[in-house]
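Input record (one chain):
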Amino acid sequence: MKVWLIGAYGIVSTTAMVGGKALESNLIERVGLVSELPFFEGIERYAPLNFEFGGHEIRPLKNAYIAALDHWEQNRHFERDILENVKDHLENIVARKGTALNCGSGIEELGKIETLEQEEFTLREMADRLIEDMKEFADGETVVINTASTEPLPKYSEEYHGSMDGFESMLDDDAKEYATASMLYAYAALKLGLPYGNFTPSVGSNIPALKELAIENKVPHAGNDGKTGETLVKTTLAPMFFYRNLEIIGWMSYNILGDLDGKVLSHSDNKESKVVSKDKVLEKVLGYSPYSITEINFFPSLVDNKTAFDFIHFKGFLGTKMKFYFVWDGIDAIVAAPLILDIARFLLFAKKKGLYGVVKELGFFFKSPMETDIVNTHQQFEILKEWFSGLV
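The corresponding structure, as predicted from the sequence alone:
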C-alpha cells in the first residue's frame, strides 16, 4: 500500500517510514501495531505490511534518509542498524513542496522553510498543486495521513466552511485568512478519493464542507489528534474512577517536551489547539468537568522524550479526599509511528469495504475523534473490534 505523509520529514513520519520498511523486510517485530493484534486477523488481505511512502514537506531537505538521520542523531530512538538497512528506500523518498498557510508563529521554529505561499500562489493554485502531487503518486491503494505541526484554531466562516460550494468559493475568492494548510491537504486527498487521516489537532477534514466532499466522493476519513501518551493514560485511567463512583475533584497535567514539536507548541497560538484537544476528554469520560490544569512547556534537552506529570485529587467514601499520581515518560515518535501505519491500514480496509464519510469507529486512535463523544479507551477498543469483525 502507499502512504502519503503530510510533514514527511518530521520525526513521526520518518520513524513510520523506517518502521514500515523494516517490517516489510522482517527486521523488527510487530510490537506496537494495533492492527497486528489477533482481533484484526485478516487485515493483511486488504492492507499488507508492504509500504511505499511519499509526502509533502516545507523543510528543504534532500530526502527522507537525511531527515531520519538528523532525528536519529538527536534522539537515538532505535538501533542505528535498522536505519542503515532501509537507507536505500528512504533516499528515494523525496517530499514535494507543501504549504504552511496560517500554521501560526510556531512554524518559525522549523528553521528554513520553502512553501507554496512564498511563491505567491493563490489558494486555488495551491490546492491544484497539492492535488497534482498526490495524483502523481497515488493509486487505488493510497492513504493520506497528516502528521504536520499543530496549527492554531482556524478563523471559521459558515459561508466558506459550511458547504462544498462555499469552500470552492473560498478557493476562487483567494480568501486566505479562512484557509489553513491542513484544510487544503484534506481537500486535495478527498477530491482525489484518497482516504485521509488527521493525526494532529489541526482542523483538517473536520469542517462541514469537507465532510460533505468525503460523502460525495465516497471517501473514508478519520481524526483528530493521535492519542499516544499522557492522554492515552488519562482516558484509560479516568474510567476507573467513574466505574468505582469516585469523584474526581481536580486533575493537573503538566507536559514537557523538546524537539521541533516542543518548539512549535511553545508558541501560544499553536499550543491552544493542543490544550483544547487534551482538556475535553475528562468531561466526555466522566460526564462532568472537574477542575483541571493542562500545561505544555518546551524543555529542549528532552528532545523527543515527552514527559507528563499528572496529579489527580479525588473524593471517596465518607467524603474522604485522596490523591493519585502518575508519570508518563515516552519517546513520542516510537509510540506515534506505528499508529500512523495502523490508521493507514484501517482506512484502506474501510475504503475497500465500501465505507465512506467519517469512520468514527477509528476513534480509538484519537484524542478528539470526529462525530462521537466516546473517548473512554476501553469502549473505543471494543467498538473498533466489533466494527472490524463485522466487516472482515
